[in-house]
Amino acid sequence: MTEGFHRTQTEMIPNRAAPASSVGIVGWVRTNLLSSWVNVGLTLLGFYLIWLVVPPLLMWAFFDATYIGTDRFACAGASGACWVFLDQRIGQFLYGFYPSDQTWRVNIALFLLIPALAPLLFDSLPFAKYGRWFSLAYPFIATFLLIGGFGLEEIPTNKFGGFMLNITVGLSGIFLSLPVGILLALGRRSQLPFVRIFCIGFIEVFRGVPLITMMFTAAMLLPLFLPPQFSMDLVVRVIIVVTAFASAYMAEVIRGGLAGIDRGQYEAAQALGLGYWKSMLLIILPQALKYSIPGIVNTFIALFKDTTLVIVIGLFDILNIGRSMVANPDWMGLGIETYAIIAVSFFTVCFSISRYSLGLERRLDTSR
Amino acid sequence: MTDTQKSESSSGSIWTNERARGIVSQVLLVGGVIAVVWFLVSNTNTNLEKVGLELGFGFLADQAFFEINQNLIEYSSTSTFGRALLVGLLNTLLVSVLGIITATIVGFVMGVLRLSSNWMVSRMAGVYVEGIRNVPLLLQIIFWWTILSGLPRVANSLSIGNAIYLNNRGVRFPAPVMEPGMGFVIVTAIIGLMVAMIISGWATRRRVATGQGFPIIWINLLLIFMFPVLLFLMLGRPLSFDMPVPGRFNFSGGINITPELVALWWALTLYTGSFIAETVRAGILAVSRGQTEAAYALGLPPGLTMRKVVIPQALRVIVPPLTSQYLNLTKNSSLAIVVGYQDLVSVGNTVLNQSGHSIEIVAIWLVVYLSLSLATSAFMNWYNSRIALVEQ
């Protein structure tokens, strides 16, 4: 046997690199944009649409726009957008008729929202245990800051307006509807027939009717239902009906969370000798609520967008302030700019919250 | 051991007996509800007495002194409040049905496009979905209405082929006018459709039983379109169009859709379409990849795989959330009031302001919307049970 006779390969040949056309940017473009003739056409069509829309939009919104002035006549010569009103009216858009020397209170309340929400939305924070106490106290702190009393100047709720009104109604609605929604969800699963019927009736009625009819109820029926000496501000009445409305949706979200809890958890709680309320509060609800957070966040997004409906009963939220500004001769014809700004405000808030909720859903979804 | 005995012995007490506790808590709930209702009713009675109003639906027979600019049934300012509300209800149904049809189309197209393998296409569909659904619908309705009312006046209408005119009073397009003989054409088309349905049912049964195909598409096209079209030509085209003619102040002839309806319809379509797109996307993704691969392994081409394997399974996931989107659209159509489209809520609000009967009007709203919800759910449940998986 001579050395020259070795015809078999004794070592593994290393993998050849993938062809240059299927890796890197070129590969990505080939698979994602140009995989077939139809796709080449669609990609070109897409680029054409972008070219058609984006440059003129940028020119209109930024480069040709007017930023400084006191009224719409400052924009007379410009072909782009007229953002003059922003500088002049930003206070109203944000705070409505809240006294301008007191708006720092709104800002602080909004700023405190971050430490109040953080321990609820992110688990791995230091001091999360103490942070939750702050979260519980936050609604009272915020109410005190916004309304005043105890030394602070009192500001009636009919001065609330602008984006702050949207945020206030949305947040109070979601916060107050949480306990009501939990009770309704538990009631819906209850063994007791009357409790169950009552909860199902409440949930289905509020889910079946448009929020706008509830707004009219707040504006016109609630004063009829209550004793005459017992008068409430319209904003408070709106928060009450919005809470009732949101708790019906909240109940369904939490019911979904409860349904996802393994039977073994209930049985384990019973085996430990816990009664109904103890087992719910200590074992079931903490888990169910955790799984409901994405749903709760989505309910909040829907509710937050729906707070613009206060417009039909004459409250001045950001949309109504914009709409009445456009009707003012000084600012007439600026509808598109105004609505674009309002749309961007809502989009920023809702889109970022929905991204968070999506991430959370992926994290909680252990099924895949 | 003593603990057990204790709890057993005390199980007769009202606090530890589950059954007794259940009864007590229910009695408390019912009592509470009755007390609250009684409190509200007595307040309402005092308040109503003070302003001198009486509860009751008698006012519906009174004359309504207002006009409604869009009515599907005959209506004038001498009609009754009841008729005005009926006009409003029909307008709600009109925009809801129109919106449901278009939103479904937009939603399915966008949902499928979002899953496209082409990055550009899926991203653009994504921009549409995220951009639309994170902005309040009310804002979108007002926005489109602002754009439509910025269209030129009647005298300078934009025209498409001198048949469709766009101006700040809406869209005016030719109205079809049926002449004698057109009835035959329609009857032929309906008969054709019925025969076509019978044939496709038979063809499906035969294919399932024997595996033999049948050229259903061509036969059905012939039945549904060719025969009616031939008859239409033979009878001397018994259909003409009432063309819009520009006049000095307004158009004569044709049908006009008000800008309010267009803005509302368009906004509802885009908004609900973006939610339906997400539903459709989730539904298609829910069909396991193995199903597609199995279909390919059996030699089915991609189109047929989508149509016969993926979509039927995805529909089972899609239909329940789709139902709630349809319900949302119907409920959201009540936002019509901000642009002045005269739907049930808008007309009801006018009636309420004129007559002062707020409780009755809100009651009518609740009953109507709840019935619409129940009717839609019932229909979709029926549809869902028809397409549901039959477990072996």
Which regions of chain A are unreliable across 5 or more consecutive residues at pLDDT < 50?
Answer: none
Sheet bearing the most strands of chain B, described?
A: 4 strands, antiparallel
Number of helices of chain B: 12
Portion in strands of chain B: 5-15%
CATH topology of the domain at 81-132 and 260-387 in chain B: the name is MetI-like fold
Strand-and-helix sequence of chain A, N→C?
HHHHHHHHHHHHH
Description:
The complex is a heterodimer of chains A (368) and B (392). By secondary structure, chain A is mainly α. Chain A contains 13 helices and no strands. Chain A has 2 domains: 84-98 and 155-364, MetI-like fold; 99-154. The longest helix of chain A has 31 residues, at 276-306. Chain B has helices at residues 2-9, 18-51, 81-114, 119-133, 137-149, 182-210, 216-234, 259-286, 289-297, 302-332, 344-355, 358-387, and strands spanning 158-160, 164-167, 170-173, 175-178, 239-242, 245-246, 251-252, 255-257. In chain B, a hairpin with a 2-residue loop joins β2 (164-167) and β3 (170-173). Among the domains of chain B are: 2-51; 81-132 and 260-387, MetI-like fold. With 392 residues, chain B is of the alpha+beta class. The model of chain B is unreliable at 1-11 (pLDDT under 50). The chains are: A mainly alpha (368), B alpha+beta (392). Chains A and B meet through α2, α7, α8, α11 and α12 of A and α2, α4, α5, α10 and α11 of B.
Keywords summarizing the entry:
heterodimer, A: 368 residues, mainly alpha, MetI-like fold, 13 helices, B: 392 residues, alpha+beta, four-stranded antiparallel sheet, two-stranded antiparallel sheet, 12 helices, disordered N terminus
